[in-house]
Write a structure and sequence with these properties.
The termini are far apart. The longest helix has 25 residues. The protein is elongated, with a radius of gyration of 13 Å. The chain contains five helices and no strands. The protein is an all-alpha fold.
């Protein structure tokens, strides 16, 4: 809920990330919260633009969020 409130106040520059961050909070818990406030919050645009190696963390979470929704939240109930 904390991440969702942050996104409502400061929407992401890439709209899909408005969905990705809450999904990350679903399976990464406190780590996702820390990561969101460190690199995902649009309050600190300078940090996002200069994150270099940390961009790998955000891009990996973007991919894993898609897999979580596709494989677990949609795929499993569809197959069952």
């Amino acid at each position: 809920m904390i991440i969702i409130m942050g996104i409502i106040r400061h929407p992401q520059m890439m709209e899909i990330m408005d969905v990705v961050w809450p999904i990350n909070g679903w399976f990464l818990g406190p780590l996702a919260l820390w990561t969101y406030f460190r690199w995902g919050s649009n309050k600190n645009i300078d940090i996002q633009d200069n994150r270099h190696q940390t961009a790998k963390v955000v891009s990996t979470s973007h991919c894993s969020a898609g897999c979580t929704v596709g494989d677990n939240a949609v795929g499993v109930p569809f197959v069952v």
